[in-house]
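call fold(seq) -> tokens
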Amino acid sequence: MRCRCCRRSLLELWQHRDGRTLRLSAYEQAGGVHGAVARLAESAYERLDPERRRIARRVLLRLAGEGQGDTVVRARVSLEEFDEQARPVLDELTDGRLLTISEGEVEVAHEALLREWPRFRQWLDEDVQGRHLHHQLRNAAREWDAVGRDPGELYRGARLAATLDWSADHEADLNATERAFLAESRSASERSQRRLRAVLAGVAALARCAVIAGVVALEQRGNARDAATAAEAQQLGARALLDPQLDRSLLLAARAWRLMTRCERAATCSAPCSAALPRSASSARTTPPS
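ret:
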């Protein structure tokens, strides 16, 4: 069923010229209904000044929804999604029969406009991936706003990075809700990164403390081992002094000497050990028994 715009274009082509009616074949050669739609759209677009043409492009792309696969379908969009700057352009495109407005929503007047107007097809093909990102952003921002701007609905990670990268060159294509959604997503991401950096800094500090504590523990264990070795050497030296049998006394003194050579702090333990050893044991430090 043809829309009113198409029927009107058809009637215009059948107007009398020099008392004669155009033949249907002439209408078909001119492109039929779809050709009439394309010419109507181009004529309405050409009547706009350069600034309003840029706004018209943004408006029409917002009204192109995503269907199954790569198809483009009409999308009904609330008038609240358009700022005051776009309202005069909406009125002009509506007067030019490219858009229809009803019950606070706007859409393109006929599906053929999405397929048959070459300029519109060029717009759609220029940035397919970006248009897909914007479509997802538009839906996410609507949902976020509808549920009271719940932080759990915000973008994060790779999706946020990709959308921010695209929006850097398409700021004018975003409405107020989409801008607020991206701003809140960016702020939430930065807060999360700051918390993560703080946690990582704390973990790094704990790791440094653990390393220092381990070094201190090793040093303390080494000191304790040296102290135990020195104590054992002193005990052997004392037993060597008290043992009445010379051969056993020499064996005890040799054992004490070997312990002292294993001690990492020989300079510290040598004085008390030497005092406890007999003369024969002291001489054994320079000439160990065979």
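The longest strand covers residues 99-102.
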